[in-house]
Amino acid sequence: MAAVKVLQIVGYKNSGKTTLLLTLLKQAKHEGKTVSTIKHHGHGGVLDMPNNKTDSVRQFSAGANCSVAYGGGIIQLHQRKQNATLNELITLASSENPELVLIEGFKEGAYEKIVLLNCKEDWITLQKLENVRLVISSEAVELDKIPVILQNDYKQLHSWFINWMDGDKHESI
């Protein structure tokens, strides 16, 4: 498997993580990159399952540890694992050798991160995270050694992301 670049997008609830991930995904695809994504379901409880009348969901509900369905070029996987690590999820997401894996959440992960701030006070706890490469904030913040982009500065974000995708210095597996 070729090295894959990994970038986490972290922040508190309603900080814009999903919106940013989708923006970066579209930008990476526009640049011709292959991309996988991982989302941490931080709302508690189990994920909602697709229609329980499909054969694969019926098989999973009946106790299969893993149920895989394939059709029309789409693979759908449901798998039970009490405690999956971020590295295990990255390995799973990397099965088709993407160039990038974009991750929403998993704050404590060790990969390069974009941190989203709802307000300056969020930085008090989020500054403890490792491998922070960029901070995006709704208000002006000055930080030592970490670039800050204002929330709606898409031109600067685009430039930063292009440099990150194509740069030599990056976290990869």
Commentary on this structure:
Helices cover 27% and strands 25% of the residues. It is α/β, with parallel strands linked by helices. The chain has one domain: P-loop containing nucleotide triphosphate hydrolases (Rossmann fold). The chain has helices spanning 17-30, 55-61, 86-93, 122-126, 154-166, and strands spanning 5-11, 35-39, 66-71, 74-79, 100-104, 112-117, 132-137, 148-150. The protein is globular and about 55 Å long. A six-stranded parallel sheet has the order 2-5-1-6-7-8, with helices on both faces.
Name a few traits of the molecule.
single chain, 173 residues, alpha/beta, Rossmann fold, six-stranded parallel β-sheet, two-stranded antiparallel ribbon, 8 strands, 25% strand
Short description:
GO terms for molecular function: GTP binding. The chain is of the alpha/beta class.
Q: What count of domains describes the coordinates?
A: 1
- Based on secondary structure, the structural category is alpha/beta
Radius of gyration from the alpha-carbon trace, in angstroms:
18 Å
Q: Please tally the helical runs, counting DSSP H or I stretches of 4 or more residues.
A: 5
**What integer is the average pLDDT?**
88
Low-confidence stretches: 169-173
Based on DSSP secondary structure assignment, what is the total number of beta strands?
Answer: 8
Do you know the CATH architecture?
3-Layer(aba) Sandwich
Helix proportion = 25-40%
Organism: Planococcus versutus
GO biological process, one term: Mo-molybdopterin cofactor biosynthetic process
InterPro entries: MGD_biosynthesis_adapter, MobB_dom, P-loop_NTPase
GO molecular function: GTP binding
